[in-house]
Here is the input.
Amino acid sequence: MRLVRVSLIACLLVAGFLICQVAMGDDIAVRAKKLHFSTIVLDTHDDTTQRFFSKDFDIGKRNPDGHIDIPRMREGGMNAIFFSIWIDGRIMGPAAVQKALDQIDAVHENVNKYSKDMAFCRTAEEVRRAHAQGKIAALIGVEGGHMIGNDIRVLRMFGDLGVRYMTLTHFYNDEWADSSTAKPEHNGLTDFGKQIVREMNRQGIMVDISHVSDKTFYDALEVSKAPLIASHSSCRALCNHVRDMSDDMIKALAAKGGVIQINYEKSFIDQAYKDAEDKLSGGVVEMMDKLKKECGDNDDCMNKKMNEMAEKATAEGKLPHVSWERIIDHIDHAVKLVGADHVGLGSDFDGANMPEGMDDVTHLPQITEALMRKGYSDEDLRKILGGNLLRVMEQNEAVSREMRAAQ
Amino acid sequence: MKLSGVSKAILVVGMCLSAGMVLTRAIAVDGISERARQLHFSSIVIDTHDDTTQRFLDPGFDLGARNALGSIDIPRMKKGGLGVIFFSIWIPSKITGSEAVKRALTQIEAVHEQVRKHSNDLVLVTTAEGIREAHKQGKIAALIGVEGGHMIASDLGVLRRYASLGARYMTLTHSGNAEWADSSTAKPEHNGLSEFGKDVVREMNRLGMIVDVSHVSDKTFTDVLEVSNAPVFASHSDCRAICDAPRNMTDDMIRALATKGGVIQINYHVGFLSQEFRNAEKAHPEWDKAIALDVQKRCGDRQGCQLIEGDRVTREYVLRGDLPRVEWTKIIEHIDHAVKIAGIDHVGLGSDFDGANMPFGMEDASKLPQITDALLEKGYSEGDVKKILGENTLRVMAEVERVGRELNAAK
Here is the structure.
């Protein structure tokens, strides 16, 4: 009896504790949700642009595949998106310029088509205005300096067409900058590359150092008058991939006021996955090459195949499972390293293999909740979700105004 | 030379006298009546075709300084009261595809760059309203026209982005056929506009871009008139009734253009103005070759230099008596003919400065007030002259913009 009574009390205590915990959990869940859906949630890197050229894709409808469309952005509370302009880094010269122009056009056309839901934005202020109007802010980033056809005038025209950042290289070196995934040719940035960086400053186009070699990164950091961004890179300390940033690089980026926007790609966030993938395919560039043979110029096909391959290999046990919580680890590592002012989100949605539990943009509120559970303040969360990037945009805008006025 | 010496002397004397005295003397010197001067310098004067853009690519050229060569720079535009200029984006029609796109983009940027550099004098505008605003502020309105559909590489996305970068008209072809439209100076391939060519015209309507029918074949012209939802214009063409060049328009074409609300913008090129000049040129094709060779020798691949030198060397042939001398008053004949055919609402100015051979007396933009003076002399009313100088073009622009808005709203 006594025993029964004791166990009953114990039972009640346990139950109370459980209820209490659930209640506490609920509180954070509710608070996180409230915060997430009231703030600007900005993603600096989405390859959805490629899908605009596929007849099967309609950004206005909920799609069974891929990671991004308007209904799912609404559901996930993502209200500011950088559509990435991207073509294979080996296409150069005028052909690259025209293809980039086509993609820039596709972004504008889609924003026009869904102007009730999206607003094209060129400044931080416009992003805030779009948010106040309940619209998704659409911005453009050019992923690879090869698309300007080695011509500073083309860069300026891209700026006029609304391009707000340019990644200096993609997987291959371009005419004036070395990539992290190619053999160095220029020892970082050439003199013309430095001129490009300065011109980007003048134009108010953010310099994006994702993809570039470490030497290019340090060169860009030295030359740029405005803070830089890594639009979609993670932490090398947690996953030793050349596409990620070392702690020293992250510190240097932050010291200059910049932001690292954490990439969700499995092979950039999980060491075991990266190691297994390297064994399987010989690395990310080699894998893309293989897929290119199957898909030709159809980049939507490339992304699909890439995901299918990864899923199959994971199911067969050749690749390890990666949880979405690795994203949190990278954010937290970067924040611990340089503070909450220098970290943001650059998913690589529609262009990378998403970890389990981050199957598409609808899962974004999980990030806010997980960070809140870690004890992040509301203010810090707002910064990470979008505020930091807007600050860097504003600083770039200010530098641009100063440089133009000084002319 | 003598005249300018006299003019200087009179100016010095005049400066010692009253302001009224200076004006009276000035009339005697350049022959422009006070009434014409008043009218000209208070009107919006638009020129829809200037090839000065080519010179922008030459690092030595300064649009802000008075240049010894060529026809256009800011000082001479001001002196001639030219308040609105369409800088032409042009590459030879044999260059197509991505290469054409990249070069066109570079030239559009070169225009933007000049406007930035000379922002005290120039402002880039894209609408009729923008032109009026610039005029009020005393600035020269700079606009962009793309001279040749080959520069879009059969890609509507590229066309749309040219429009967002400020291109306000596109000539459907240049001297060669585009992939989707026949030129007046090439063998027909498409029987006018191809189906895609019709899509291009419709998309231009939607974008509020003026469809320019200069350079195109007669059949292309007819097709355009049928397809276009908005008035079209000929940015730089003359009257075939006076000078029988395929680049010029027949009376029927001018009438059809006018019926649709469009405008013919008169070109000052001697080979389009004067039948006599054209005949002489045709009789001696070897001169044309010799001129081209000479120009090539002086300029190499620099297009801006080629265009300027071409005009200069041709002038040498005239001075030698090989080619006939064409006076600027030929321009007035063409304007007057077109007005008689189509009415006062359908004629304007599209000089082709810096891209053609100018007649004597119309060497550069500073001479423009002569046109106003001559038209008043002919008995044109001030309102009519204003229309020719710019109001007709403004009407077409505003109408094209209205159609564009309507088509977008209907989507």
Notes: Chain A has a mean pLDDT of 93.
